[in-house]
Amino acid sequence: MDNTIYDEASEVDAKEGSVIVKGPDAVDVRLTPAAAEETSERLNTGAMKARGQRFFSDRDNERGR
After folding, report:
1. What value does the CA radius of gyration of the chain take, rounded to a whole number of Å?
2. Residue 24 carries which DSSP code?
């Protein structure tokens, strides 16, 4: 698994009843609308979790922990 962290969002479009996700890098997938909705929820949950981790890490670093 590649551990590269990207700071650019994927491009998303819909065509012929499927959702197309491209980028960053080699990401190129087509999803059903249901799979895209579930992926969206999972991405949102992961993003909120990561933001919380960064918040508490930054706060702890400011306190010298």
Report:
1. 16
2. S
